[in-house]
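User: Hey, quick favor. My workstation is busy. Could you predict this chain's structure for me?
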Amino acid sequence: MLVLFLLHLSLTNFAQIHRGIHELAPYFDQIDQLNEQLRSDPRHFPEGYQKLMQVSVSQKDSSLLSFLYVLQGSYHFYLNAKDSAIYYFEKASSIAHLIGNSQIEITANIRRVFCDEYEKSALELSRRMEANFMAAFQQNDTINMIYSLNGLGLFFDRMDSTNKALRCHYWALTLSETGNYRFEEAFVLNNLGLIKLEMGLLDSAYADFTHGLAITQELKNERLESHFRENLGYYYLEVDSFDAARNEFNYVLNIGEERGLKDLSLSSLTNLAGLEQMLGNYGKCDSLYKQSLELAKNERLLQAVSPIYLGQVQLYTQIGKNQEALSLLDSSLVYAEFSSPATIRLTYLQLKSELLEQLGKPIEALQLFKQYKAFSDSLDEVSNIASIAEMQLQFNDEKKEKQQLREKNKLILQLKQHEIDLANFRQRLLTIIGIFVLIISAILIYYYRLKQKNEKQFSHTIVNKLEEERGRIARDLHDGIGQSLIILKNKVNKTQGIETESQDHLNKNFSDIIEEIRSISRSLIPPELKRLGLKKAIESRLSEVSNTTSVFVTTEIDDLDKLTIEQHQNLRIYRIIQELTTNTLKHSEATAIKVEAVLDDHVLTLIYQDNGKGLEKDKWKSADNSVGLRSILQRLNYLNGTIKIERPKKGFKVVMKIQLN
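Assistant: No problem, here it is.
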């Protein structure tokens, strides 16, 4: 009983809740220091409290003042001065309410509920704590939601509503983990572990204790770490690992003595005494009980005195020291008012009746047994009345809950119908949007294709016009200027009085100019193409290359005679071969050229290759730097053709495929 009481006290009052209140941000460090004094050595708390109180008065800071009252209430709660604690918690709540600070108000109200923990029924306390939870929930106050859920879990556990208790603690654990509240996560794990230990779920309890212990070590919180170690000690007792339990209790004892945490020292001493009694080390057990009793009286931890006396009585009865046990029983009654008077008195009557019977005083033992029975019955009656009252309250609550449930179900149905209507509207809206998107997409695709078609048609027309213009220029050069030069040459030859040598020189110049004009005319539009066809025109071009350069040319283009395509298509194919040969002569340093043409199922494949220094694919892809290469790609595009560059061991090779209509 003692250890669990001290554990609950610590976890209720030493959290870092102020860190979630932004109005207290300027004082975080000072409040941290004050909290540390409250945790480690409460005797120094009043000094630090007064200093910070002066700050709140000088700054006229009501938020700080109300939170200081929360700490003062916690201090008195720690000293078991419940009336003083209630006064400060209610004062803190009142000030916080006036200034509109809901977080401090809810914090004070939560701690106020714990002041009535042993005076009020668990059902009433749970209802008050639930109201605090709802207030925190409405304010989205996560930290106070965690503490109120923790309190609800404790009260449900007292009412043997274990499932509800576990749900509350697990909810609090989820909020702690999500919000990264490490301290709160640790103490919720501690409470979960204790419930599981009582249920016999030893492995799960051990997992919670060890996880929480790791968090406390990370936070360097020795007080909370000590509670986890005590609980691990209880676990080891359950699994008969007595040495491990002793190690944990001794660890807590050392922490308590080193840090001056008297409550920890007291709880560890009583735990060690119980352990030694279980092991049959009665002398050592008696010594530890005496140390515990001396410490409790010296440090005014009077709520522990009666339970320690009763522990000694059980020890002395077990080892046959009945007279000593009898005298200690009377001492336990003196301090009963500081703990649980009814429980102490009931245990007192039971033990004294048993002792008197063992001492050979059956009449006195019988009288005490009758008193014990009557007192026990009266407690049962009071308990039954309280239980009936709780059941009535619970029935009324259930009746209200059923009415609320019916209203809630009605509201849920309305909300579901609204959700269905909203879903249908969204579905219709999505359908309309989808149709609209499809229409827009179709329009865009149609526009894009039409644009491509128009651009292609425009380019096709431009190229045709260009070729027509080149033909006109070629004809003008050949038929106009060329013929005029021939006539002029003949006239010069007939002219008298010109020296023979000069005449020969002029004659040669005229011939060279006429030949140059014919060459330009042929390059602008090959005369063989229209007269002899595509194959002969290409062969003529390649023969000219072979005759005027040292490049060896071979062809396999007989399939070109099988083509039945329009004249403008013939011209574009010719221009492609013409451009490729020009590039070879200008750039490749090749000594051989080969041209192939294969017609297969409406697909004309043209293969052009040389044995020069080659052309990199990246350079081909960046053909915007070369007018010749760009013109090849454009003409292939007009012909619905594709081009592929291959990488022979030496030279340059392209394969072009043209889809014929």
